[in-house]
Specification:
The chain is an all-alpha fold and 62 residues long. Helices cover 65% and strands 0% of the residues. The radius of gyration is 20 Å and the shape is elongated.
Length: 62
Amino acid sequence: MRLIHWTFLALLLLAPAGFRAQNSKPSVVLETMRAEMARSLEHFKGMPNPPYFLGIPAFEWL
């Protein structure tokens, strides 16, 4: 029973951190990747055999 109380308390304390992350501004890298993806899709759409899927890998080095 005590574990449930501590778990609930931890969830209550950590919940606001998740809400702040959702409201924050998107990163410059993410916005740049979105712009590049849109540009690439427009370019490849006009080709005779357009791609079925287009992806850009991203790695974050800590």
